[in-house]
Amino acid sequence: MIGGIIALSPPVSPAQEEGAPTKQRLFFFTGVTGVRWKSPVTPGDVLVMEMTLKDFDDRLGFASMTGKAYVGGKVAVTVDEFTFALVK
Length: 88
Hints:
The protein is mainly β. The chain has one helix at 2-7; strands at residues 26-37, 47-57, 62-71, 74-87.
């Protein structure tokens, strides 16, 4: 979900003119590779995700990211590549 939020935020999405209607865009997960669980994540844990956009092709709408998730300030999960596609 965080990847979609980043892709829909500036500067990846085209700038909206002030007063213009907001354009609805959907994204679909296309894959996740290299997931490594460093410690268990249990119900009630606060998971803080840190994602980095590696590549984005605005013409085709494909993006790839890498990232980590933290629980209590310690790395709980790492992801080598997270990919998704935007539907325009």
